[in-house]
Amino acid sequence: MRGGRVSAGDVCAAVASEVEVTGAWLSAARGTEAGHLMWVTDAVSERLAELHLTLGEGPSLEAFAAGGPALASDLADGESGARWPAFAPAALGAGAVAVFAFPLAVGAIRAGVLGLYRDRPGPLSGFQLGDSLVFADTATLLLLDAGNLEDGNEEPGNQEAGDMQPRAGPGGQPAGLALHRAEIDQATGMLTEQLGVSITDAFVRLRAYAYVNDLRLADVARNIVARRLRLPLDPGLSLDTEA
Amino acid sequence: MDGELLSATFVELTDTLVADFDVIDFLHVLTDRSAVLLDVSAAGLLLADPRGELRVVAASSEAARLLELFQLQGDQGPCLDCYRSGRPVTSPDLAADTRWPRFAAAAAEAGFASVQALPMRLRDQVVGALNLFRAAPGGFDPGNVRVGQALADVATIGLLHERGMRRSDTLNEQLQAALNSRVVIEQAKGKLAERLGIDTDEAFTVLRDVARSRNQRLSDVARAFIDGTQTITIPATAKPRQEASGQVPPRPGPGSSHRP
Questions:
Q1: I need a surface site. Which of A23, B202, B237, B248 has the fewest CB within 10 A?
Q2: Which residues constitute the domain of residue B123?
Q3: What is d(CA B107, CA B68) in angstroms, rounded to the nearest whole number?
Q4: Contacting residues of B for A79, CB less than 8 Å apart
Q5: How many Cα atoms within 13 Å fall on the side-chain side of residue B246?
């Protein structure tokens, strides 16, 4: 962590030590593809990420496509071999025995994939699974806020917005996705239609509006769903006030 | 109680090994049928997220207030107590109950006077809770509660035993994918509500009708609509306002997939 600014790369490093895995990698989505490698913690992780691109199969790609994790506690078991006939033996050859891939997703929004590996077999414990999911949520928001996605995003690199995540909301709520509210998801869906932007951009706009105006995300979302609030069409109108 | 519908429901809830099995659709069968069979006003299903909260996955009605009531129980309420203890939790008269003040107030506002939470449990593993509401105060009929628990048990076995026993990884994959699918459905509700100028609960009914008429999973329809690969218009036959209150949808006979 540099100067309090947290990047998705920091998350990648932190998850590897906290969740007791050997290494981790993080890929950012490019449009509908998962494969833009952004961070790795070691050479094996880099190799695992590469294998996905080379072979066109593996837990990362599956997690990205399914919108749920792909968990392989033992790549040497028959099921993993049947699931990924090319990836499983190649990953074993590279030194990975267990691989766990988590989509960086909020519903239909896909920001990338977080991959973890172990050099020994064994499932993630319940706590480790929970921690991995929380890390994945954090990485998702950081990627979205940093504008690292090439999802038709017309306004790249609002780096300052990266500061918004670690801060708790004005109401003292955690700012992360651990706080799941249907209104937030519904408001995101409404904004994609109102503003004529992608679902990813709609979510970024929603969070930016709450941040800039120092409002709770859930309150902004509720007002949008109740049709008491419409966000300005031009994103500059809200983001400019940040300075 | 409709015995024929009850046995059909048991068959559907055990039929989880079909190739196109979908957790969301499966749990909607459980909540829809619970509402009808158990003589309750509403039923909802919460699953435990390993992040440490309970999240709504299916409900017999998508009325926003009802969803909020389920959602609230991530913080306090009978479902949270039920999930933590692994035992049924009931309150025949919420107005006189002091255990969950915020929940009781929200329930009263939504028009409910009594509540029952039943664990989704197999041996020592609790994956969530089935939540039943009634508009009138008074105890739940013991026979209905037994049937409700049996439905929850069968559904839990369907989820855990048949599919997850071989690999705990598989269950976690499916539950997480289901939780994310629920988010996709909420996003699609918002987009469709905005496009058609209707409420989000009406939007859900439209999405569900479209999924049925196309013989697709609800979550797939929702995702395709968000991604823009499928368009949705109100089907001429749809009457969202009437259907949203929770009628039994037409279902296929025993032995077939749990989606029409």
A1: B237
A2: 3-167
A3: 10
A4: 166-167
A5: 24
